[in-house]
Amino acid sequence: MIKSIKLKNWKSYEESILYIDTLMIVIGTNASGKSNAIDALIFLSRIASGVGIFQAIGGDVSLSPLRGGMDWVCRKGTNSFTLEVVMEYGQNEYEYSITVEVGSAKALITEEKLFLLGRNQRIFSTNLQDKQLLNISTYFSTGKQGKGQKFELNRNTSILYQSKTLQLKKKETIDITINLAKQLSGIFVLDPIPKHMRDYSPLAEKLSSDGSNIAGVLAALSDEKRGKVQEKLTTYLKKIPEKDLESVWTERIGKFDTDAMIYCKEAWQGDDACVVDARGMSDGTLRFLAIMTALLTNEENQLIVVEEVDNGLHPSRANTLLKMLKEFGEEKGVDILITTHNPALLDAAGTAMIPFITVAYRSGNGKSCLKLLEDIQDLPKMIATGNIGELTTNGKIESALAREEQ
């Protein structure tokens, strides 16, 4: 599992660490850097999946660019960035890092390496002799002292991904690189857009980042799995709206059964049940369905990120949402990272979640920073005067961070 990600000269960050746990909450004001940190996760997922470095940042015909594209991927005044990821595999932890130099029409690797932490044992590392070259010398461990395999690899594709195609001699190296690449490529960032979810969608194996093909993903499941997933969806969705929900399901439609629509049966107390499709569902219901579908259909040991998790959801339902996220995370064996502005959700989290809340903020010189809430010096005093949601609403957390910098 992914344990942490260090951002160096990435967008608005000079150097900061984002910690990952079973359930992490990232809070912060607008333009504090929350989305910039999530963009780093998207970038890592893309390059571990084989997307070229340039395309992972600037996009192409089938891939949207990161926010700001090539112009804003490096911190102002710099032309390169480094991302360092600590990951767990077996009983060990490994550090993977990649450094990329960016120009107006290029983005190329200048260094990439993977080490076993604790013993500083190399799995692979690079040596760039000339920045004008399009290849980079890469050395993989063979387990023999002072020896290794050397390959000339493409600087526009991550070494971690390219290692899949190499004839490596050491089985342990093969297992480690494949597993860690899977962890990174498996990062799934969900930002549900209800208006994209209201139409029919084609059958699909993987949920899109905006949730637009939710019906197609559910309908494509086997009969047995779809029944279990829909039962779970119904159980949790009943706790969200004011109406009584009897069931939620999907149906294949069209002459060739290649498209799908999602439906629910709802009724006010005493009224006849009414079947509603996605076109008639509320934004909050659709977002909630997308989040649950992501949790239920993604593989185990993955990181799922949900932006503005409670957007469109009534504050009174924050506790239900948080409870669901905890239960699903533990049951599915996935890590969940969410962002929120909602004080009601922070109040629902309570003091027990303090070690798992990260604050994104801007320092006095404009750099974005990430800090664990529990590491704020004045936190005990602040908690004595109000709950976390209130502290956020009144700007007391940002004020405490500003005082620490003085």
Quick synopsis:
The chain has helices spanning 34-48, 53-58, 159-162, 171-185, 214-219, 223-237, 283-297, 318-332, 343-349, 379-385, 388-393, 396-405, and strands at 2-8, 15-19, 23-27, 80-89, 92-103, 106-116, 121-127, 135-141, 148-154, 188-190, 201-202, 244-253, 259-267, 274-277, 303-306, 335-339, 357-362, 368-372. It has 406 residues and is α+β, with helices and mostly antiparallel strands. Strands 2-1-4-5-6-7-8-9 form an eight-stranded antiparallel sheet. Strands 10-15-16-3-17-18 form a six-stranded mixed sheet, with helices on both faces. Strands 11, 12, 13 and 14 form a four-stranded antiparallel sheet that branches.
Defining key terms:
8-stranded antiparallel β-sheet, 6-stranded mixed β-sheet, alpha+beta, single chain, 406 residues
What are the SSEs and their pairings?
Blueprint: E1 2-8, E2 15-19, E3 23-27, H1 34-48, H2 53-58, E4 80-89, E5 92-103, E6 106-116, E7 121-127, E8 135-141, E9 148-154, H3 159-162, H4 171-185, E10 188-190, E11 201-202, H5 214-219, H6 223-237, E12 244-253, E13 259-267, E14 274-277, H7 283-297, E15 303-306, H8 318-332, E16 335-339, H9 343-349, E17 357-362, E18 368-372, H10 379-385, H11 388-393, H12 396-405
Parallel strand pairs: 3-16, 3-17, 10-15, 15-16
Antiparallel strand pairs: 1-2, 1-4, 4-5, 5-6, 6-7, 7-8, 8-9, 11-13, 12-13, 13-14, 17-18
Helix pairs in contact: 1-4, 7-8, 8-9
